[in-house]
């Protein structure tokens, strides 16, 4: 059984969504990618576009540059891969009905939940930093206004002042 850390390493961000690739899912479930995709195609009504989509050639090329995969048509993948969002992975449990599929799905959903909580924490921290910047700007504004006030209170340089220092002969 795959560990949570191993699963989190095979989640990719594509089209602004966290997804898993069909071949990685098939590997986790212990089935061939071809069989996983057959089950998905037989139950295609369960997989709307926000649950699963097929990569474009450009997306696949970019993904290949990130991970080691075979080229299309060279003994490896013959079709562009399908990718599954969190909802798509959850739906897979109704299509693939083995005990291993159920265990793997539970692990994957836990990872997606953890990633979502990290994302919320990240947003919260960014918001707090934004508030701190705003407060800091206000403080600097007050400091610069006070410096301007001190500048205006300083005696003008044109007034006669007593010279300090040694007299040279």
List keywords for this structure.
single chain, alpha+beta, four-stranded antiparallel sheet, 6 helices, Mlu1-box Binding Protein, DNA-binding Domain, 169 residues, 8% strand
Structure description:
- The chain has a domain of 115 residues: Mlu1-box Binding Protein, DNA-binding Domain (Roll), CATH 3.10.260.
- 59% of the residues lie in helices and 8% in strands.
- The chain has a four-stranded antiparallel beta sheet.
- It is rod-shaped, with a radius of gyration of 31 Å.
What's the SSE blueprint?
Elements: H1 4-9, E1 12-14, E2 17-21, H2 22-29, H3 33-42, E3 52-54, H4 57-66, E4 82-84, H5 86-95, H6 99-153
Antiparallel strand pairs: 1-2, 2-4, 3-4
Helix pairs in contact: 2-3, 5-6
What is the compact description of this entry?
With 169 residues, the chain is an alpha+beta fold. The protein has helices spanning 4-9, 22-29, 33-42, 57-66, 86-95, 99-153; strands at residues 12-14, 17-21, 52-54, 82-84. 59% of the residues lie in helices and 8% in strands.
CATH topology of one domain: Mlu1-box Binding Protein, DNA-binding Domain
CATH class of one domain: Alpha Beta
Shape category: rod-shaped
How much helical structure, as a percent, in the residues?
Answer: 55-70%
- What's the pLDDT, averaged over the residues? 78
Q: In CATH terms, what is the architecture of one domain? A: Roll
How is the biggest beta sheet arranged? 4 strands, antiparallel
Please provide the ordered H/E string of secondary-structure elements.
HEEHHEHEHH
Number of strands: 4
Physical arrangement of strands within the biggest beta sheet: 1-2-4-3
Sheet-strand content, in percent, reads 5-15%
Rg calculated over all Cα atoms: 31 Å
* Distance, first to last CA: 93 Å
Contiguous runs where pLDDT drops below 50 for at least 5 residues:
none
Please, how many helices? 6
Structural class: alpha+beta
């Amino acid at each position: 059984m795959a560990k949570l850390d191993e699963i989190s390493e095979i989640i990719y961000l594509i089209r602004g969504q966290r997804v898993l690739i069909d071949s990685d899912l098939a590997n986790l479930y212990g089935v061939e990618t071809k069989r996983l995709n057959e089950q998905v195609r037989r139950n295609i009504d369960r997989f709307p576009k926000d649950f699963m989509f097929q990569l474009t050639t450009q997306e696949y090329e970019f993904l290949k540059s990130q991970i080691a995969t075979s080229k299309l048509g060279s003994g490896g993948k013959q079709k562009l891969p399908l990718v599954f969002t969190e909802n798509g992975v959850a739906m897979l449990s109704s299509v693939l009905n083995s005990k291993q599929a159920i265990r793997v799905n539970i692990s994957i959903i836990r990872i997606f939940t953890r990633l979502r909580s990290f994302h919320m924490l990240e947003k919260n921290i960014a918001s707090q930093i934004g508030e701190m910047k705003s407060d800091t700007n206000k403080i600097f504004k007050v400091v610069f206004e006070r410096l301007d006030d001190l500048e205006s209170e300083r005696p003008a340089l044109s007034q006669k002042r007593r010279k300090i220092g040694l007299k040279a002969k």
